[in-house]
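Structural prep section.
Before we set up the soaks we want a predicted structure of the protein with 1,3-dihydroxyacetonephosphate in place, mainly to decide which crystallisation condition to try first. Input record follows.
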Amino acid sequence: MSARQSLVAGNWKLNGSRASATALAKEVADGAAALSCDVLVCPGFAHLADVQATLADSTVALGAQNCSVEPSGAFTGEVAAPMIAEFGAQYIIVGHSERRALFGESSALVAQKAKAVQQADMQPIVCVGETLEQREAGQLQAVLDEQLDAVIDQLGIAGLAHSVIAYEPVWAIGTGKSATSAQAQEVHAMIRAKLAALDSEVAAGLRILYGGSVKPDNAKELFSQPDIDGGLIGGAALDAKSFLAICAAAS
Ligand code: 13P
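Run finished without errors. Recording the tokens verbatim:
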């Protein structure tokens, strides 16, 4: 048994209206009261206020999906971590593969964002993971090293104690083709071993979430693995019943 408290996070991506986000948050809040895992939802920026109000007095935490590296200034269109903190947010996802692939975010930039999140007294959920091409070319460890080393350089190994890592193989995201529990466990163990070589206590306490086509029917098997401490859920998080079933599998 691990001493780590499981976390299940819903990444709502670019979806919903104020009305639908509010309704989803309400249903999640109502269902989460009976759960023992930590539950987090990450709506779009425009829905943070509505979701914050809906989650008041619930056990569900609020997060965002991205932030600027800058705390303020002439950076038109950016959203700063301290602005997000004002909504009572506790986490911000950084380095999601969609940000890396579609918006050109480098590992150095992702690491700076993780630092900005911590400077605003929240925890970054740092996403890492390989493409199918990289996996098939035998580059998995090299990809993880490049993505994680940037974060370690920026936060220091001690700083990782105030963060969460999410392993999201790019080939499993939105494809319905989850990594098997054995594949995911192997990579989670690689990540933990890499960090343990620097600080065994930090590595032992760090929550490493799995993301990529997690559904109610595969969640329990994934979450039963020793180094999988919960999930980062995309599509299934948009349906309260599915999301709550996944949370129940982690509870
Ligand atoms: P899916 O659960 O839709 O595969 O998305 C995973 C993800 O990208 C979560 O951040």
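Observations: Residues 220 and 249 are 5 Å apart (CA to CA).
Flagged for discussion at group meeting.
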